[in-house]
Amino acid sequence: MTSEAWLEAHAYLRPLADLSVRVDRVLAGIDVLDVRIPDWEDYRADFLAGVPLLSSANAALELEPGGRMAGALVEGLASEASSGKLAEEIRALATSLRGEPQVSRRIADFLLGDDTLTPPLPGLLRYLAWTAMARFLRPVVTSFAGWRDEERWLRRYCPTCGSLPAMAQLAGVEPGRVRLLSCGCCGTRWQFKRTGCPFCESDSQRLASVAIEGEPGLRIDHCESCGGYLKTYNGQGNEAFLLSDWSSLHLDLIAHDRGLKRLAVSLYEFEPGA
Ligand SMILES: [Zn+2]
Ligand SMILES: [Zn+2]
Description:
Layout: H1 3-9, H2 14-28, H3 40-48, H4 64-79, H5 85-98, H6 103-111, H7 122-147, E1 167-171, E2 178-182, E3 189-192, E4 207-211, E5 218-223, E6 229-234, H8 239-242, H9 249-257
Parallel strand pairs: 1-6
Antiparallel strand pairs: 1-2, 2-3, 4-5, 5-6
Bound molecules: zinc ion (2 copies).
One zinc ion binds at residues 197, 199-200, 202, 205, 223, 225-226, 228.
């Protein structure tokens, strides 16, 4: 399915899709700053102990340039002539960031949970800044995927940034079929056990599945114990689109209507469009 056909069927996703296109366009015009690939052996002990890469003092990744790219992205979007609520929100965000000392470093810290930066629209900053940071980190995420032994992680949180998963993907064919969890922040995908809840770690807990009418490739897997859910892509080939969090926002709405809780970081806690 093409993204255009998808949007025909889910018209209310259009404002987010438009924002995503604008973000990609502005980001394409920003210099991608160099990231230093860590010496993986320096990080090995932390990896085995379950410390995510970005939290490891031994990996010593410098994230400030990613924060700088995030600031440039916000400025680039704010300088585009456009009207509407979202455009105003982006300009308000840009104005508030301009007044902050050491803002690039603090944006990077903000993404890892530091709360000394209190922007007017934290959800919007989180979305924009993670998009820029994920672009900055891409060579590291690729190198990390090549180095790490998936069998030695199998944890419920992202091995790169430590976030809980936004989505899952069932990939491969039996008997080698695996479940990958997908980070909505840094874009890492990592292996997890086939059954079981990544939110409450109740080992015995199998997830129940809700099929989505008209969407054979997507379903909602949810936990009876903690009420958490995972949007799951049961297929391969359309990862770039279907594993982007916004393209399955309607699944979040269905889950919400069923009383389930979004336990992944929400990148869309702001009101799109209007
Ligand atoms: Zn991540
Ligand atoms: Zn659970």
